[in-house]
Amino acid sequence: MTKTRAMAPRIAIAALLLAGFGSYAWGALHAPWMDSNRPAQLQLARQVIKEADQRNDMAERRLAEDYWTRYPDVAADAYFGRNGKLGIQGAHEHYRRHGRHEGRVWGPDADAPATSEPAKSK
To answer: How does pLDDT run across 33-56, given as a tens digit for each residue?
Structure first.
């Protein structure tokens, strides 16, 4: 009986080690990098992200052109303008830093004033 009692902890430890290794092996075999469809899924995800970025770039470009058309003083600016250091982001950055506080309009608003002067607050 003492021999059986002495073996019990060893058997329990072996069972725990075996269960741990089995759990690790199952997780490793079912990991995303082991999935045979993973390369196709990643390629699709990259394509969707690239197309979304292109749509966002086109939309941002249209909004920037509208802003520059509406405010020629911004369009001519060396930093925020069409040929400015910020590029296409210049128009939106101008609006965030200055235009909003000056009462200028961001977006394709056809009713916005087409002047280089900011709207006067009342």
So the answer is: 777 888 888 888 888 888 888 888
